[in-house]
Amino acid sequence: MLIKIYIILILSSLIYAQPDECYNGRYLDEIFDVEVEYEVQYGQNINQTILGSETTENLFMNIYKPINDDLSDRPLIFFMFGGSYVSGSKESPDIVAMCMKYASRGYVAVAIDYRLSQHLLLFNPNEENAYKAVFKAVHDLKAAIRYFRMNDALYNDYKIDVNRIFAGGYSAGAVTAINAAYLNEYEELPYFLEDDFDSFGGFEGLSGNEGYESNFHGIVNLSGAVGDQEWIVENDIPIVSMHGDLDDVVPYDNSLITLFGLNIAVDGSYIIHQKMQELGNYSSLHTYYNQGHDPYSNMNFEAEYSSNFLYEIVCDQNSYLMGDVNNDGILNVLDIIILVNIVLGLEIESSNSDVNEDGIVNILDIINTVNIILNN
């Protein structure tokens, strides 16, 4: 009887929570046309030519933006190309596709070039040089993140939200983003990096835009790995992973990377996901069964799967409505009906159906949801 009274009350009041940026398909659906700003320099650093001579390399990026978007604080996402740190560019078709698909969903998406390491890996491949190749790319990614934070503070050209920055990529690009996120304590460094670590650039690097933060808030991992799962800690950065279980380039599990004659132990997407779950961290993994290192085609599925995951982060502070069990962005009588069905055992409970967060979905959650609606 109490349930019926509250439902009638809601039907008569027709009071709704107000929608905001996370409604109407933004961040989930491709609703914008996209414009691209090409060859924006974000940094500079020393590199080596393929023969080993020192050179100064300017670092550039392409910036993908939704057209006719009046939002003033948009999430920012970086995508980095693969190529084993010896080849590739920001014009890689898979990276262009991901940037286009994310910008059309309302993100500012960025494809960066980062320094390659042909001399280190082709002429003198060893574990130390492999890690240095990764760190060079990590340094460049962090410089690009700092560039946007600097621009946001001084000019606000791109209208980004510095509290919603994400990074990812394919293969080496994914390895870069993952290790930039999880390798952040001196005690975690492999011993062979310790002697010249500071002169090499430390954790932040020397690629430009010093004085601004380089942290980010989520990872999109396509066929990547972390150096050691023990670098991941409780409440660490969320990660969404996609990986073929027969990958013989970057292992899906805890096998070896054997490119260039190397034998380097790493932890792939499956191990990362297990570790994240063990710690209670936010993580998701899609496995391409019986497929290898590059199971991707037009990136439609990858963009949809990863953007659904990031939606919970992007919209957490803006539109996450406890009690909005049908996730339509509006708290109303439909949610009350679904909550009733959950209490009666007719539907499966969702993450936001336990409104009072007591671990049980029952009549109290229905009452609290009604009160939230009435108070709005």
Gyration radius, rounded: 23 Å
Number of helices: 10
| Net shape | globular
Tally of distinct domains: 2
The CATH top-level class label of the largest domain: Alpha Beta
Q: Give the CATH topology of the largest domain.
A: Rossmann fold
End-to-end C-alpha gap: 24 Å
Order of helices and strands: HEEEHEHHEHHEEEEEEHEHHH
Salient structural properties:
376 residues, alpha/beta, Type 1 dockerin domain, Rossmann fold, 2 domains, 8-stranded mixed β-sheet, two-stranded antiparallel ribbon, 12 strands, disordered N terminus
What does this protein structure show overall?
The protein is of the alpha/beta class and 376 residues long. It folds into two domains: 2-17 and 321-375, Orthogonal Bundle (Type 1 dockerin domain), CATH 1.10.1330.10; 34-314, Alpha/Beta hydrolase fold, catalytic domain (Rossmann fold, 3-Layer(aba) Sandwich), CATH 3.40.50.1820. The chain has ten helices and twelve strands. It has helices at 2-13, 93-103, 118-123, 127-154, 172-182, 197-200, 269-279, 300-314, 333-343, 363-375; strands at residues 34-48, 54-66, 74-80, 108-112, 160-170, 219-222, 225-226, 239-244, 256-257, 264-265, 267-268, 283-288. The strands form three sheets. It has an eight-stranded mixed beta sheet with strand order 1-2-4-3-5-6-8-12, sandwiched between helices. A two-stranded antiparallel sheet has the order 7-11. Strand 3 (74-80), helix 2 (93-103) and strand 4 (108-112) form a beta-alpha-beta unit. Helix 1 (2-13) packs antiparallel against helix 9 (333-343), helix 4 (127-154) crosses helix 5 and helix 9 runs antiparallel to helix 10 (363-375). The longest helix has 28 residues, at 127-154. The two termini are 24 Å apart. The relative contact order is 0.14. The model is unreliable at 3-19 (pLDDT under 50).
